[in-house]
Amino acid sequence: MSVDLDHIQQVLDEADCLYHEQQIESAIGSMGKAITEKLSSSNPLVYCVMNGGMVITGKLLTHLQFPLEASYVHATRYRDQLSGGHLDWRVRPIQDMRDRTILIVDDILDEGHTLDAIADYCKEQGAAEVFTAVLIDKLHDRKSRPGLKADFYGLEIEDRYIFGYGLDYQGYWRNANGIYALKGH
């Protein structure tokens, strides 16, 4: 597969920066405090939703200074595309969740289908409590169910196509050190 790297670079060069690194890091610190207050005595099992959740999970974990287990799941709807299809489980949770507190960490709450499916799976496996944390809550009325919100979130963003800090543009720019909106979207 041939990738037009000039186009990929142009996407970043023309994008609108919605949040700078310092703003994002401050939001992650605030999330860490809120999660610590709520979960520090519960011995949680923290799941990173790959691939988007890897940046936020890694940064968030350094703010959670209490005993926890960390692992990952890999479920996606996007497959490097701009819009989603059906849920595709690539790696399901392997730890025993019975009677455990679970924290699922992902990059964004857009429509919420992926996060809801993972949370439902954890509940079906006997988790005592399931919490969700996302860096970005996208503001629109297309959530998978009315009133859907993550238990913990860092920033809210208007309904635009965004990338950076774990969110990708066609598989690229997860490593961008800000949150950017695609020009014209």
Tell me the series of helices and strands, N- to C-terminal. Answer: HEHEHEEEHEEEE
The N- and C-terminal alpha carbons lie at a distance of 25 Å
Q: What's the CATH topology label?
A: Rossmann fold
- Helix-strand makeup class: alpha/beta
Verbal overview:
The protein is an alpha/beta fold and 185 residues long. It has one domain: 3-Layer(aba) Sandwich (Rossmann fold). Helix content is 26%, strand content 28%. The chain contains four helices and nine strands; from the N terminus they run H-E-H-E-H-E-E-E-H-E-E-E-E. The strands form two sheets. A six-stranded mixed β-sheet has the order 4-3-2-5-6-7, with helices on both faces. The protein has a three-stranded antiparallel β-sheet with strand order 1-9-8. Helix 2 packs across helix 3. The two termini are 25 Å apart. The relative contact order is 0.21. About 3% of the residues have low confidence.
